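User: Hey, my collaborator sent me this sequence without any context and asked if I could get a structure. I don't really work with proteins. Can you help?
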Amino acid sequence: MTTSAHKGIASGFGLAVMAAALMVSAPASAQNRLDGFCYEKEQNTKTKGTLIGAGAGAVIGNVVAGKGNKTEGTVAGAVVGGIIGNQIGEHEKEKAVRQCLNNQYYVFDGREYAPPAAPKGYRVAYYNAGERPVYNTYYTHKNGKVQTWAPPKKHKH
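Assistant: No problem. I've predicted the 3D structure and written it out in structure-token form, which is a compact way to encode the shape of the chain:
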């Protein structure tokens, strides 16, 4: 065989492998497709936890430290307290109930688009299919305007 024949076989094999990989990953990407978004209040529980923990740890470290070791006790207490406070803040963030601004959830309705910028103090929170929060009314953007959106009605048999 010639070198060009080897290259042709190799590229054909490469295309077949890529096609197979795409077919295997297609169902997973369909499950993770974005359903929509809303604006959620930014959570800074980790920062608050770190600062409160560091402050409390510094005080405790200073009180517990022996004479002549107050500075080291304060610093060590601040570091340990900050680490503990950070972890508590992360745990509290995970427990927080997700709430959309003004109870408005925007459905992509079969097409994804870049949402408008979030208001100050909020962030854009994306939801995958099956994670949509429950509200009485949903919204979507069409032609640059916000419109109400209703899920398709299911027919009873």
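In plain terms: The mean pLDDT is 75. You can pass these tokens on to your collaborator as they are.
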